[in-house]
Design brief:
By secondary structure, the chain is an alpha/beta fold. The protein has helices at residues 26-44, 62-66, 79-92, 134-144, 180-188, 201-215, 232-242; strands at 50-54, 71-76, 97-102, 119-125, 145-156, 192-198, 255-262. The chain has seven helices and seven strands, in the order αβαβαββαβαβααβ. The protein has a seven-stranded mixed β-sheet with strand order 3-2-1-4-5-7-6, with helices on both faces.
Length: 264
């Protein structure tokens, strides 16, 4: 269930669009949109002026962030993704200042394009596992955050990550494996205090249950096979109901989601 395109580029398993009605990766779509719904809802209470979406891909999460911030900065390593994101957000978010930066954060600094201490929130989902040097990248996130600003991210849980030969990740786009302790240690080494650990255990459990029932031939149709489930309205509703990050049973989630705050 990965979506970041930093390391792989192009479309495919590592780039999902929750609003694409022809994309049948239902559970990925729900989890990916659910993270953005949570991020926007969490940040809203702090009335952020500027939010950076790092590894924004085709920009499906930007309309959610637009709800709560005055300015959105979308960063991605793929120029193709930036162009798609720019086109789709310009139609929905004409009244808001949205700008995009084509940059590979694994090898390039976010400054000077993003001024140090100028961002109220950094959102980066399913990104760090794609990086050769995620510690350096988190230092960049901390640098652009204002004191008291928030960092919200997700990574696959090493316990849930399928392994291939030599115990490396089966997903060849993944360069890192994280557990909560290793992720927290790295984040907190950059003056970022982890406030919450969340997960999406409900959606992951339902996915596994559906797979078991299908394998046992107890059901002959999956939810993802139903076109009516894939409308934008249904995807957004289901993302809230079954894939909204919570504090419950976080070890049962495929991804580790954290909220951290920069020291004031």
């Amino acid at each position: 269930m990965t979506s970041a395109n930093l390391a792989c580029g192009g479309f495919g398993w590592d780039q999902v669009d929750p609003h694409d009605e022809l994309d049948r990766h239902l559970w990925m779509k729900l989890e990916h949109l659910g993270r953005y719904l949570f991020a926007a809802d969490f940040l809203k209470q702090y009335q952020p002026k500027v939010v950076a979406d790092i590894s924004c891909g085709i920009g499906y999460g930007i309309p959610e962030l637009v709800r709560v911030a005055q300015t959105i900065i979308g960063v991605d390593s793929s120029q193709e993704m930036i162009e798609i994101a720019s086109t789709r957000t310009s139609e929905d978010c004409k009244s808001l200042k949205v700008r995009f930066i084509n940059k590979n954060v694994d090898g390039e600094d976010l400054t000077p394009e993003i001024e140090s201490g100028s961002v109220d929130g950094v959102v980066s989902f399913e990104t760090l596992e794609h990086l050769v040097d995620p510690d350096r990248v988190i230092s960049q996130f901390a640098k652009i955050l204002k004191p008291g600003g928030f960092f919200i991210c997700s990574v696959p849980n090493a316990l849930s990550e399928p392994k291939a030969s030599a115990c490396l990740p089966r997903n060849k786009c993944h360069k890192q494996l994280f557990n909560f302790r290793s992720l927290s240690r790295m984040v907190e080494s950059h003056s970022l205090r982890v406030m919450y650990r969340l997960g999406q255990s409900w959606s992951y459990a339902l996915l596994k249950r559906e797979q078991q029932l299908s394998s046992a031939r107890l059901i002959d149709r999956k939810l993802s096979d139903m076109p009516e489930i894939h409308t934008p309205e249904m995807i957004r509703l289901l993302s809230y109901i079954v894939a909204y990050p919570t504090l419950e049973d976080v070890d049962g989630s495929y991804s580790i989601i954290i909220v951290a705050q920069k020291a004031s």
